[in-house]
Amino acid sequence: VQLQASGGGLVQAGGSLSLSCAASGRTSFLWTIAWFRQAPGKEREFVVFISRIGGTTTYAESVKGRFTISRDTAKNTVYLEMNSLKPEDTAVYYCAADTNHRLPSRFRRAYDFWGQGTQVTVSS
After folding, report:
1. HSE toward the beta carbon, residue 67, CA cutoff 13 A
2. pLDDT on residue 63
3. Which residues touch 16 (CB under 8 Å, ≥6 apart)?
4. b/e code 7-24 from CB counts within 10 Å (16+ = b)
């Protein structure tokens, strides 16, 4: 599975940005796609996932109510709409795919394929 993340950029606090993650290759083995983020000097942290079965979603508390994940199964693409952005949302955002576990997870170790990362910068 290959993941291509795009979107991101620079926005002022309170603004919005959209990210997308296009999956290719053996996508029939793909159970869950998630977004993680990593701020400078910090660990990579879970943001949200969407499962292949039923489209179950789970958000980190820090983004709940502001971020929305969606998918276009025909295009094998997942989208992340980010609203009411805060400076603390500044990070490199990575999409990740889990091809091994039927149940979705918020843990990094569950994901075996990663996109290249895209920078999101929120200015105050």
Report:
1. 27
2. 98
3. 81, 82, 83, 84, 85
4. bbeebeeeeebebbbbbe
In the chain, how long is the greatest CA-to-CA distance? 42
Assigned token pair, 71: 């998918």
Token couple for 21: 């993650």
- Helix %, strand %, coil % for the chain, to 5? 5, 50, 40
- Nearest-Å Rg of the Cα atoms of the chain is 13
User: In this predicted model, what pLDDT tens digit does every residue of 46-100 receive, in sequence order?
Assistant: 999 999 988 999 999 999 999 999 999 999 999 999 999 999 999 999 999 999 9
pLDDT at 112: 96
Phi first, then psi: give them for residue 108, nearest 5 degrees: -55, -40
Going from the C-alpha of 68 to that of each of 18, 56, 98, the distances in angstroms are 10, 12, 20
Spatial separation of the C-alpha atoms in residues 32 and 41, rounded to whole Å: 27
- 22-40 pLDDT, tens per residue? 999 988 888 999 999 999 9
**Length reported for the chain:** 124
Question: Which residues share a beta bridge with 96?
Answer: 34, 114
